[in-house]
Amino acid sequence: MSRIQTYLLREVAGAIALSVAVFLFVFLAGNVVQGIGDRLASGQVSLGQFAELLRLILPFAAVYALPLGFLTGILLAYGRLSANREIVALRSVGVSFLGIARPALLLAVAGAIFTAWFNNDLGPRDRAAFREKIARSFAENPLRLFRGGAFIDDFPGYLIFVEEQEGDALRGFWVWQHDAEGRVDLFLRAERATVDYLPEERSLLLTLEDGEAETRRPDPSYRERPASGTLVSFREFPVRLDLSAVFGEAGARARIRRPEYLTLAELRAEIRRDPANARPYRLQVQRNFSLAVAVVSLVLVALPLGVRVGRRETLANLGIALALGLLYYFLAAVSNWVPAEPPWLAPFLVWLPNALFLLLGTVLMVRASRA
Fold first, then answer.
1. Contacts of 101 (CB under 8 A, 6+ apart)
2. Can you list the alpha helix ranges (DSSP code H) found in the chain?
3. Is residue 15 within 8 Å of 52, Cβ to Cβ?
4. Are the C-beta atoms of residues 65 and 36 closer than 8 Å to each other?
5. Residue 346: closest CA among 295, 287, 294
6. Contact 59, 28 (CB under 8 A)
7. What is the pLDDT of residues 338-357, one digit of tens each?
8. Whole-angstrom distance, CA of residue 40 vs CA of residue 42
9. Which site among 130, 237, 269, 284 is 20 to 30 Å from 160 CA-CA?
């Protein structure tokens, strides 16, 4: 590799690494960390568990940070080279556009291969481990989900308030059972409670002790306070709490094998096991590879834009990168909104953003090479 190629490779690789790191931080700080940060602040997870969960949620952010990082890094690196007139100098000594673009293309292919492996192996395994880590923390101490002096609305159909907390001891449980529209049909108050984690059902069994239960008759229009119904005392009252919201699952039933938590080998096994109902698993395989190809698609568009735009201002190039990235991910998200029929439509939409960006990138590359 010539000295010029080595210089370009170093410049581009540095910009890509910095951009990926920035996007990882943004995605982690803006979305994912907020969920486990709240659990750390409330004592639901320890500091050591927080650090482990933070490591395991990196794949959630990396899926999107890698393509956007390559896009932004290419725009920043080649935009700076163009603004400093280095592109003009290279062209004047006989270096072709493809020669200037070669380091970025090599990095894009390597990034696509890495992203494909990441999306099909490491990422799913870490996502599954993240959920299991949360589950184990609740199994060790289910009371971590409850906090004294705070309302807990993590459980569908229930609102819970705990009066006091002294260490691991909780006293004074208030439980409102409500319908989908938030209207209360049962109110429970107990002096204390025990909590058992049911791993097979991914739920908690909250056994209220020494309390009262009051049924409610809500007004259909919900304009007035609900009328009191039957009031009874109890020694024990079991309440089963679904952990679907806590685990982020569309139902906390046992071991639902969500496609995004499965490696490529596991996805293929699920497809062979039940071909008739394998549509979600087939789509997940295509999404994993489509996001890998996105690295090359976005780089092909970014290369000629970075060379031709040639703006020194970082914010200008970041704005272009974000606009292109948002357009790509908006088109990619459309595939999640389509119905099951016809069966070819969702796979078509999965690959449509790559097809459009590859076509646009090829046209821009050809025009840039002739300039």
1. 303, 307, 365
2. 3-27, 33-42, 47-56, 58-83, 86-92, 97-117, 123-140, 244-247, 264-273, 279-309, 314-333, 345-370
3. no
4. no
5. 287
6. no
7. 666 677 888 888 899 999 99
8. 5
9. 130
